[in-house]
Design goal:
heterodimer, A: about 180 residues, alpha/beta, GMP Synthetase, Chain A, domain 3, 2 domains, four-stranded mixed β-sheet, three-stranded mixed β-sheet, elongated, B: about 250 residues, Ferritin, about 65% helix
Amino acid sequence: MNAFSLVPAVPDTDRYVAASSDATTQAWAIAATVTDPEVPVLTIADLGVLRKVEERDGTFVVTITPTYSGCPAMEDIAARIVGAFAAAGLRAEVDTVFRPAWSTDWITPEGRAKLVDYGIAAPHPASAGPDAGPSPLFVRPAVACPRCTSRQTTLVSEFGSTACKALYRCRRCEEPFDYFKEL
Amino acid sequence: MSTSAALFTYLLRLGDDNLVLGQQLGALLSRMPELESDIAVANVCLDHLGQARNFLTYAAEVEGAGRDEDQLAMLRDERGFRNAVLMEQPNGDFAHTMARQLFVDAYQVPLYEGLSGSVDDRLAGIAEKAAKEARYHLRHSCTWVVRLGGGTEESHRRMQVAIDAMWPFTSDLFAADEVEAALVADGLAVDPVSIRPRFDTAVNGVLAQAGLRLPEDPYQRIGGRQGLHTELLGHLLPELQALYRANPGVEW
C-alpha cells in the first residue's frame, strides 16, 4: 500500500506536500507510524497532525501542527517522531506550524472508524461547531453513542478528559462516553 | 515608536492576558463544585497557557535580547506586566470566575478573529488557532452565566453580584494607546475599539437571556496595558515565579 493512500480526499492542496522522492515517501511512512499519546489508536497521519516530510542535507524535517495551542502531547509526539526515525537509522527534526489551523475535518475516514471502535464518538463537520451561528448559545447536533449508536445522548460537560473531547452520556445504554469535538 | 518595539509590547499584552488568566484558573484545579467543572476549567486554563506560550515565545524573538518565554514570564515584576486588569481579578466564587471568563471570551473571540487576518503571518497563525479555542470558551461561559442567572434566587443574586464586580475592569480591554496605533495602520494589530461593538452585542445578548443587567455605576479601572495594576497581581506573581526565581533557568 502506498503511504499516501492515508491522505484523505479533501480538496485542500496546502495540507500535504507529496513526496518528491522514494526517500521522502519512506520517511512519510515512518512518521505516519507515530501514535497520539492521548488517543493511542490514532496515528498522527490519521489525525491530520502530520503535515509534511522533507529531506534537508541528510536530515528529515517533519512538520506537524498542534490540535490545540496548549496541547501537552506535542512535545511527546515530537520525541516519538525523532525516536521512530532513529530506530530506522535516520535523523529527524520536528517543525511546528500553526497555519492553516488544524481542523477535525482533517481526521481521515480510517481515523474516524478507529475512534468509534475505541469508544470515542467521531466529530461532526467543523461547520457544526461553535462558529456556526451569530448567537453565543447554539443548538448542538445530536451525537451518536459509540457503543449502542443511539442518538438519545446528553452533553455532560463541554470539556472532557482532554481539550479535544467533550463528555456525553447515552440515555439508552446509560454509558458515559467521550465525543471528539468538532474544531 | 518603532514597529518592532510596538510589536514586542503588543505581544506582551496578548501573552500576559493569557498567562495571568491561566495562572488564576490553574489555582481552581481540584476546587470546582463538581468533577466536570474541574475538568472544564483545567482545559480552558491549558488553552490560555498554550496561547501565552505562543505569544511570549514570539515576543522574545521580536525583542531579540536573548530572553526566552520563561524569562519573560518569570523574571518580570508587576510593573512590567501588560495584561488587562480584568485578568488579575480574583476567582471569587464560581459566578465570579464565569463572569470574568464571559467578558474575556467575548473580547478574545473578535480579537483573535481579527488577528487571523494580520499581515504578520506568525501572529495570524497563533491567532487563527486561538480563535477556535476562544469560541468554545465563550460557549462554555455563556452557558453557565445563563444557567446561573436563570437558576435559583440565590444563583441569580450571586451571578449579578459577580457581573457587578467584574464589569468595572472591562474597559481596560479596549484601552488603545500608541502601541496599537503604530501597528493598526500597517495591518499588524487589531484596533481594540473596533471590536467593542461585537463584545457589547455578545455580552448584552447573554445578560438578557440570563435576566441579568450591567451595573449603572460608570466607574472603570484602566491602566493594565501600561503596567498599572490592581493589588492582586502583586500576590499572584510570587506564586507564579517563585520556583523559577529560586532555580534560574530550571526546566520542568
